[in-house]
Amino acid sequence: MPDIARRPRPLSDLSPALARSVRGVLTDIDDTLTRDGAIEPEALAALQALRDAAIPVIAITGRPMGWSEPFARDWPIDAIVAENGAVALFRDAQGLRIEYAQDEATRARNTLRLRRTAERVLAEVPGATLAQDSAGRITDIAIDHAEFAHLAQPQIDAVLAVMRSEGMTATVSSIHINGWYGEHDKLSGARWIVQRLLGRPLDAETAAWAYVGDSTNDQAMFGHFPVSVGVANLMQFADRLHTWPAYLTPSARGEGFAELVRALLPINRAVPPAAPPAAPASTPGTPPAAH
Predict the structure, then answer these.
(1) pTM of the model as a whole
(2) What is the pLDDT of residue 284?
(3) CA 12 to CA 251: how far, in whole Å?
(4) How far apart, in whole angstroms, are the C-alpha atoms of residue 269 and residue 263?
(5) How far apart are CA 181 and CA 111, in angstroms?
(6) Which domains does the chain have, with CATH numbers?
(7) Residues 254-264: pLDDT tens digits?
(8) Which residues pair with 258 in a beta bridge?
(9) Of 102, 110, 148, 210, which one has the greatest count of Cβ atoms within 10 A?
């Protein structure tokens, strides 16, 4: 496990033996693969290099189901787990499949609670606005603090206080404050999708997966995986982190992700320097229910 008492080591300290042990990659999306809501070319090339090397890649994000659909279809990845562990999107022989961690009755019961809590946040926290991707959300609410709006730390803390007083789980990403009802989170979502797609328990092979992230809502994942990696822009949250990744890339966002992939792949499978094809346009238990 990473040493959570100390800041991360440089990615160059990742040993070749440990890099060779990685057989799958779990990654955040916003500000880990993307910049300003669009995937960076370096990250898209790195994802394709992993696909070519037959290394599964699963994105774990706080973004909504609706926002995630085109990327689950078009990016060279195996799945996206959206809404912080609540919704899984992956392709099968019939096309794009969407499944939920909560059953339909639970989601229906939570709908009114989500709306009422959102109304309370907007009424009680001056400057709070719903995230612009809110129309695509099924199981949570999101308040924009750094994507199209800006909230100072006291406002962020006030939003968190309202959400938690309503019994929500609440986290802060690099762009949004997310709140939801339920026990799921990024780690439970990772466990679910690995079992669902690969038929194997993630906790039996934790050392074989790398996790990459950039914000405070990645801390549970950083603490769970020996090969946990922050891209360089994670350092903007240095004063708010209690659990650090094991390693930090030299570069930020998509280039940082590409640096990790270069470290993981053999030299003859390195991320190609040529520009990749243009990214798709973006609009920046109980067995799960299928949709």
Answers:
(1) 0.89
(2) 36
(3) 12
(4) 10
(5) 10
(6) 9-101+184-274 (3.40.50.1000), 104-180 (3.90.1070)
(7) 999 999 999 99
(8) none
(9) 210
pLDDT of 7 reads: 86
Residue with tokens 């085109």: 70
* pLDDT at position 175: 98
Residue 69 gets which letter from DSSP? H
- Which residue numbers in the chain have pLDDT < 70? 1-5, 267-291
Structure tokens at 188: 């439970």
Burial class (CB in 10 A: 0-12, 13-18, 19+), 38: middle
What single letter denotes the amino acid at residue 94? Q
The pair of structure tokens assigned to 270 is 């390195």
**Residue 191: enclosing H or E segment and its boundaries?**
helix 186-198
Residue 259 near residue 20, CB atoms below 8 Å: no
* Paired residues of 130 in beta bridges: 143
Specify the pLDDT at position 266.
75
Pairing, β 289-290 against β 95-100 = antiparallel
Cα–Cα distance for residue pair 272/68, rounded to 1 Å: 26
Per-residue pLDDT tens over the stretch 29-48: 999 999 999 999 999 999 99
